[in-house]
Amino acid sequence: MANPPNFAQAVDLSSLGKPKPAPAGPMPGLQVSATNLNTEFLPLSSTKPVIIIVWSSRSPESIEMVRTLGALEIAYQGSWALGHLDFDAEPQVAQALQTKSVPYAIALIGQQMVPLFEQSYPEAQIRLVLDKVLTLAAQQGIGAAPIEVSEPEEDEAMAALEVGDFKSAEVAYKKLLARKPADSYAKLGLAQTQLLIRTDGLDLVTIVRAASESPSDIELQLQAADMQIANGEVEAAFNRLLHVVQQTSGDERNKAREHLLTLFALVDPSDPRLAAARSALASALF
């Protein structure tokens, strides 16, 4: 069964058959091997961050991720370097990088390995991860942090948020997304602003207590999850709505599922709690 929209997929290679022929055409980035990992990529990581993506011809998702990162390397104007590692051709190198499934990506910063993600993600979320890598590298004196260029609508939203005018901020972010639908920062800003609107004036203890006393009240469960994630209780918020999805059906289940997806958008794509919740949701639905 095909995955539903917005659900990433990691492929356990032990579950697949023999390797297929390599994809037609050159793969973007530099090919990683046992020979050049130490002689080329580690030294290069002392001058700019290096992103290594592990792929396999048995996993179309991983091939697509390589191509997405190739396009992003161009978009980022060489501020980081891309390497691609064929799991089937270099299994020992893949093992040394702690690969368990594909696609799997790591960053090399100053010859140190930083795990990034081990499943597919939309481009907007990958950009957020790349920006964090560049910022981390710049803090270590390697390369430059991403240049933040604000949009007029973003400035408008920030000004509204500073005075507590959440509705105006929401309108501003929506205007920006109407003009730039793929803007990852606008999507995140809108999600955060809408969370502020939903939780404005609510008390965490009161809402969570009420939700515990009325487990069948879907609206209370949604409010409690909002309050929990707003207060940093990410896992508790996810588990609450996962339980609702498991215990309901029809419109109620769909409402809880959609609300959970809005909370997913508020969490760092590399957060293991997000990966675990996505997997649990997929299991609950199918």
Tell me what the structure shows.
It is globular and about 60 Å long. It has helices at 36-44, 60-75, 91-96, 123-139, 152-162, 166-179, 184-199, 204-213, 218-230, 234-247, 250-264, 272-285; strands spanning 30-31, 50-55, 81-86, 104-109, 112-117. Strand 4 (104-109) and strand 5 (112-117) form a beta hairpin. Helix 5 (152-162) packs antiparallel against helix 6, helix 7 packs across helix 9 and helix 10 runs antiparallel to helix 11. The chain is of the alpha/beta class. The model is unreliable at 1-11 (pLDDT under 50). The protein folds into 2 domains: 13-139, Glutaredoxin (3-Layer(aba) Sandwich), CATH 3.40.30; 152-285, Serine Threonine Protein Phosphatase 5, Tetratricopeptide repeat (Alpha Horseshoe). The chain has a 5-stranded mixed beta sheet with strand order 1-3-2-4-5, sandwiched between helices.
Give a brief outline of the structure.
With 286 residues, the chain is an alpha/beta fold. It contains 12 helices and 5 strands.
* Shape, principal axes of CA atoms: globular
How large is the count of helical segments?
12
Please, what is the average pLDDT?
A: 88
**In CATH's first tier, which class of the largest domain applies?**
Mainly Alpha
Second-tier CATH architecture of the largest domain? Alpha Horseshoe
Order of helices and strands, N to C? EHEHEHEEHHHHHHHHH
CATH topology annotation of the largest domain: Serine Threonine Protein Phosphatase 5, Tetratricopeptide repeat
Count the beta strands.
Answer: 5
Radius of gyration, Cα only, in angstroms?
Answer: 21 Å
Strand content of the residues, in percent? Answer: 5-15%
Q: Assembly type of the shown chains? A: single chain
